Amino acid sequence: METYHNNILxxxxxxxxxxxxxxxxxxxxxxxYQKFYINNDFIDYLCMIVSIxxxxxxxDFMSGAVHMYMDNNTxxxxxxxxxxxxxxxxxxxMKYKTRHPLMIYVIESGSKFWLVVYLGMVIFLQYQLSxxxxxxxxxxxxxxxxxxxxxxxxxxHNAHNKNSIIKKLQKFKILLPKKHHLIHHTQDNVNxxxxxxxxDPILNILAKKFYKGYKNSSDxxxxxYKGPQTNNR
Length: 233
Ligand SMILES: [Zn+2]
Ligand SMILES: [Zn+2]
Hints:
- The protein is mainly α.
- The chain has one domain (about 1-225).
- The protein has helices at about 1-5, 10-40, 45-70, 80-85, 90, 100-110, 115-130, 135-160, 165-170, 180-185, 200-210, 220-225.
- The longest helix has about 30 residues, at about 10-40.
- The two termini are about 15 Å apart.
- One zinc ion binds next to helix 8 and helix 10.
């Protein structure tokens, strides 16, 4: 964590990844728009809604799977060590610095290195293959929801109690419900999902089978760190 906080290169790398991710998301959306609106390809709206729905569920699962892997990763001595340590800061200090949701979307995307590879593949496929509409919308929406999961998680910790729209969306599991996610912080090795938590029952089974949990490993490492009390970049 000390290396992460003191080494400007590690800090700047997150910004570089954020910009790369948002730019690639914009390109993938524009490619989709061009294919189905400007080229006037046939689009079935029911098919579109089903694609978006499945992408929302899949992105919830992926956010939880990556979170599970990172919370249980204590490979601090590797070259990625400072990034791993920085990821664990959230368990030490849950509250985020208050920012506009759009800023959270951009900034927090910076920790999603896997998303750079994913979006690169989606754009490549969009140019190289004639993707059917169902697949194309699914792939693009999955990329966007994977970043939006960070905003959903942010609202879980920072949303004001008076924000009735967010509260309602959390209640109906469209956004990550506060009570549901807080179990991740109070108990061990549970509720890793970030977007809406609907895939947590599956993730919890996988966590039990493959991991020991974070309370006696990464949480201790984070608690021992005496540096700045922040998980924001
Ligand atoms: Zn966690
Ligand atoms: Zn949290």
